[in-house]
Amino acid sequence: MKLAKRLLFDFAGLSAELRGSAKYPNSYLGFNFHAVSNDYLPHVANISSYLSANQFENCIEAICRDFKLVSRAEMAAFIAGEAPLPRGKAFFTFDDGLSVCLGPVLSVMEKREIPAVFFIPTDFLDNKSLFQRHAVSLIIGKAREVYRSDRTQFENALTRLGFSPKAITFSEFANRLSGCRNSVEIEAAREAFEVDTEAFLSRERPYLSAEQARSLSDHGFFAGAHSLDHSDLSALPREGVERQIIKSCEIIAGIVGSKPVPFAFPHSSLGLDRGHLAAIARKCNYVGPFFDSLSRFNPSPFGVPRFDIDPFAEFAEKKDFPQRIISYFDIITWRKRRFCDDNSRKKPSA
User: Fold this and answer.
1) Residue 209: per-residue pLDDT
2) Which of 12, 82, 101, 312 sits at 20 to 30 Å (Cα–Cα) from 258?
3) Under DSSP, is residue 254 helix (H, G, I), strand (E, B) or coil?
């Protein structure tokens, strides 16, 4: 899989060279990040890659050099439902509400007066709870430490989880856990490896506070909702989907003092009833425009599409990095130029 991604990415580089600095006039050009840090992030590193501050700055510089950017006024008008988001211009978003982004992101973006939207799962505000995927990363990290330092303790933990220590390696256990979505199994693994998530939240403060979210506008940024707890919305009943969207938008609106609030789907909109999503937007004036993720799994996003940059951190030093990202998605989704439908407006027609 890694080799296939590398080959496709290299082919995307050839495609980018052939296209030169084309501006993709009919496309939305959203670049999405999750974490930016020079430090080892134990709650992220074992489930996802992320850019260093230098890689992030290089990426932003390359995008600013090769693409026009959505202005703060244009993004504000789009969020308010007053104007469409301009196509052919790049914009930036950050998912999951991680506080570690503020330092390197603020220094780079403010210097260039570039706006961005931070999409925040509201249950994590003020570090009240830990995202399940971040708990998984902590567990994998602790399991690795135990495996290296005390093989007997590692095997005892596996036994408590119902595994035969001789039948599963650490790598197999880590791969299994990284793909797990069962909260009961994850909690059992947390207990088996004695991971104190409450202490981690108190010590590291990995998420934005409500006050930090409120102050984003002081730096030319926007706060958006990213559901309550980053649940997979496609696994919820319709009432649960509606609650995750409306309630999180209400909470963000209460913090920033304005509405409507943009909403980014956790994971993606894949598997969701689009008629139901449109009805939710019409029903509640807290809910602003939808932002979605574009990938080979979700080639037709509902709302404004964004490219996740984090998985390609290893390529961030390449000078044609942004063109490679766009060309990569061109290739892997078999879509050319037009990356989304017209369902991105705040109040879709019936």
Assistant:
1) 97
2) 101
3) helix
Q: Residue range 84-111: average pLDDT?
A: 91
Residues 218 and 327 in one domain: yes
By DSSP bridging, strand 117-120 and strand 261-264 are: unpaired
pLDDT tens-digit series, residues 148-160:
999 999 999 999 9
- Could you tell me which of 190, 92, 89, 98 has the C-alpha nearest to residue 135? 190
Residue 281 identity (one-letter amino acid): A
Distance CA 97, CA 124 (A): 8
Residue where the block lists tokens 């999405």:
32
Is the pTM higher than 0.85? The answer reads yes
Cβ distance 326 to 13 under 8 Å? no
Identify whether residues 142 and 100 lie together within a single domain: no
* 320 falls within a domain: yes
Helix (H, G, I), strand (E, B) or coil at 180: coil
**103-118 as b/e, with b when 16 or more CB fall inside 10 Å?**
ebbeebbeeeebbbbb
